[in-house]
Amino acid sequence: xxxxxxxxxxxxxxxxxxxxxxxxxxxxxxDLSPVDDLVVITxxxxxxxxxxKLKDLDNIRNGNPVTEPxxxxxxxxxxxxxxxxxxxxxxxENKNGVxxxxxxxxxxxxxxxxxxxxxxxxxxGNAIYIDAVGKGFDGREVLxxxxxxxxxxxxxxxxxxxxxxNFKTFNTFMIDDEGxxxxxxxxxDFLVKCDVPMKILDEKIPRRYEKIPDFIWLDIIKNIIKPxxxxxxxxxxxxxxxxNLSGHTEGKKFxxxxxxxxxxx
Length: 265
Known about the structure:
Layout: E1 2-3, H1 10-13, H2 19-28, E2 35-41, H3 44-50, E3 59-63, H4 83-93, E4 98-104, E5 117-123, E6 127-133, H5 139-143, E7 150-155, E8 171-174, H6 177-193, H7 198-204, H8 214-230, H9 232-237, E9 242-250, E10 253-261
Antiparallel strand pairs: 1-2, 2-4, 3-4, 5-6, 5-9, 6-7, 7-8, 9-10
């Protein structure tokens, strides 16, 4: 077992897709990540040897070596699903796959209760590209290219001047009623397959698009866009020239789970 709480294990965590993405957020944007504990389990023997230490790690992802293309995400419907069974499913997909378990410092919200899902693409020194989906959606849609409700493009030269008053001038796309209805139907179908009752979705996911609130954009300006200029040299020295921050909002803040570099994308 490799654990983020053991500094000697960090180089090993960085050898696996998704674990690497989550560690990168903690390295470069330490105030953003909601993850406060993370481990990688490599096989069933590893699980058996450490299962007593895993009781509080109830969030599950799959990973595989960064020397391979990133394996597809394995959907876990119930966070309490048996961890060993999840590991078996991962190994069935990829013999080199690993089980990633983690704990969040905050209680995770329901997928239909979030203000937005957001993907922020950074081309260091060139531009920042933001794709976002609104209320009742999350990072899944934008990260996988399924849907986009709002899009922004900010030249690097404008980072210093961007603020909440001029942020909307960088908007390059806003979804229309027809496009939103199609994306809503697809979102509802997906969540129904995840066992969310239709009655809840009818209530929680707006039938007409509601723009992402300014307090979400203000949070992103303050905690991501402004620090990018300050940390440009550091990011460049570490080889982060093209990368992506993606995730969803928790309450009134954007809490990205991962930072994927161009090798991942």
